[in-house]
């Protein structure tokens, strides 16, 4: 197929939805028929904190969902799709385009870094913890957990994350919290504090230590299934199931069945304040696990934190066997005056906190 025969157009939900779903499946089984889609790409635009706190928000475009059927790869289709999306970003006055990929995805890294001029920006960690439906964690008796309404959560996030967190969607956080897939926002604080109305009004009288997070039900949008697992993972899965069955006194949790489609909860907006807040983050994570046990479809809980954020990562329960220590975020300046700023951003150490938009997971 030559370039002259390739047509790139906007997505039409009425006529393209089923065809795109079929394309996703064929990307896995490498089959292609006549008169079918050969590639697809998605993009979203928002304003986020990417500069220093004193600078205004940047308008960024996120590149996601790039798919080309196997028989038509290495023909430049992916390259043309990204460039077409970049043209759309530029027409919308976007400052930067960015994308996330696995650091071991050689084809993706080569396309974006070598051919499209993107540069490495951040390397966050993806933390995964399995849901054990037969186990309920006990929360600390000296820690209280309360659910916030959307207005309270939005106010807290804007006050405490906007000036310290990269990629925080200041204008859009309310829409994220109100999304039907967002299950809610919870805060943990020392038991005995009277916080009635505090989170929605006087934020200056918060306790010295507290923590918060929000939960997104990704399983309502799509399902995952493990195609190829490391031998070590398979051995542990089977052996732990046997031990759990015949020697329950060992209390060894088994890995859930990942070989059939399953959903997951995504914890986002994880934030803590104060010297004892790490324990409160862990308590919130246990609370989310207990909540997930009531959803038979939810097999794992996932969160993503900044690569340098050890102060947060150590308090989030996760299995190294299932987690990814280094995801890769790449970025590109679409305006000439932003290129110098981008060069400076990539040369300085990243800020500790990183906000990962659950809509882009």
Automatic annotation (TrEMBL):
- GO molecular function ontology, one term from the record: acyltransferase activity, transferring groups other than amino-acyl groups
By its UniProt entry, which InterPro entries does this protein fall under? Acyl_CoA_acyltransferase, GNAT_dom, Plant_NAT
Q: What region holds the N-acetyltransferase domain?
A: 1-132
Q: Which Pfam families match?
A: Acetyltransf_1
Q: List the PROSITE patterns.
A: GNAT (PS51186)
**Where is the signal peptide, in residue numbers?**
none
Residue stretches in coiled coil: none
Recorded protein name is: N-acetyltransferase domain-containing protein
Q: What is the lineage of its organism?
A: Eukaryota, Viridiplantae, Streptophyta, Embryophyta, Tracheophyta
């Amino acid at each position: 197929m030559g370039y002259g025969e390739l047509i790139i157009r906007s997505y039409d939900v009425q006529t393209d939805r089923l065809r795109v779903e079929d394309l996703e499946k064929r990307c896995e089984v490498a089959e292609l028929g006549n008169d079918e889609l050969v590639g697809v790409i998605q993009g979203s635009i928002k304003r986020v904190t990417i500069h220093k706190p004193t600078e205004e928000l940047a308008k960024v475009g996120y590149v996601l969902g790039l798919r080309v059927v196997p028989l038509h790869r290495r023909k430049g289709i992916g390259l043309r799709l990204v460039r077409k999306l970049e043209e759309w970003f530029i027409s919308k006055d976007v400052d930067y385009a960015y994308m996330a990929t696995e650091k071991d995805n050689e084809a993706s890294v080569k396309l974006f870094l070598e051919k499209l001029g993107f540069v490495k920006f951040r390397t966050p960690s993806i933390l995964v913890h399995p849901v054990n439906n037969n186990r309920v964690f006990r929360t600390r008796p000296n820690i209280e957990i309360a659910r916030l309404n959307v207005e309270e959560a939005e106010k807290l996030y804007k006050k405490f994350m906007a000036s310290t967190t990269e990629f925080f969607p200041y204008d859009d956080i309310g829409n994220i919290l109100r999304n039907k897939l967002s299950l809610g926002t919870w805060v943990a604080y020392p038991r005995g504090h009277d916080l009635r109305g505090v989170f929605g009004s006087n934020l200056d009288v918060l306790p010295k230590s507290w923590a918060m997070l929000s939960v997104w039900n990704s399983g309502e949008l799509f399902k995952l299934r493990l195609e190829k697992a490391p031998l070590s993972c398979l051995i542990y899965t089977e052996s732990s199931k046997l031990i759990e069955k015949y020697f329950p006194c060992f209390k060894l949790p088994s890995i859930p069945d990942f070989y059939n489609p399953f959903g997951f909860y995504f914890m986002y907006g994880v934030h803590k304040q104060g010297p004892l807040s790490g324990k409160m983050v862990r308590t919130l994570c246990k609370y989310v696990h207990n909540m997930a046990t009531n959803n038979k479809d939810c097999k794992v809980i996932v969160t993503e934190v900044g690569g340098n954020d050890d102060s947060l990562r150590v308090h989030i329960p996760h299995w190294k066997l299932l987690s990814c220590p280094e995801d890769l975020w790449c970025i590109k300046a679409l305006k000439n005056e932003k290129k110098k700023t981008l060069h400076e951003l990539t040369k300085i150490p990243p800020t500790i906190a990183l906000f990962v938009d659950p809509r882009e997971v």
